[in-house]
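Researcher: I'd like a candidate sequence for this fold, 85 residues long. If you have to choose between options at a position, lean toward the conservative one.
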C-alpha cells in the first residue's frame, strides 16, 4: 500500500516524481475510508503515489479507528499534517 518516497524516477514507468497531494481510499469490506489532501510523492506520468512513513502511520491510524467503530463511510482530510513530519 505505502512505500517510501525515495528520490528519483518512478520504478513503474520511469516518469518523474513530484511532491503533491493525493486522495487515499481503502475498502474495508463493510465500509470505505477516504482521506483527502494526503501529502504524497506522485509520478507525473502514470500517477503512482508514495506516502512517507509518518503519513502512512497516520493513515493506518485513521483506518484502524474507522474499523473499530464500523464506519460505513469515513471521510476525512489531512490538512493539519506537516509535510515533513
Ligand atoms: Zn510512473
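Model: Candidate sequence:
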Amino acid at each position: 500500500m505505502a512505500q517510501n518516497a525515495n528520490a528519483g524516477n518512478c520504478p513503474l514507468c520511469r516518469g518523474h516524481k513530484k511532491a503533491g497531494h493525493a486522495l487515499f481510499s481503502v475498502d474495508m469490506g463493510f465500509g470505505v475510508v477516504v482521506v483527502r489532501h494526503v501529502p504524497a510523492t506522485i509520478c507525473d506520468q502514470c500517477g503512482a503515489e508514495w506516502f512517507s512513513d509518518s503519513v502512512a502511520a497516520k493513515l493506518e491510524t485513521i483506518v484502524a479507528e474507522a474499523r473499530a467503530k464500523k464506519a460505513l463511510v469515513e471521510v476525512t482530510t489531512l490538512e493539519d499534517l506537516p509535510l515533513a513530519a
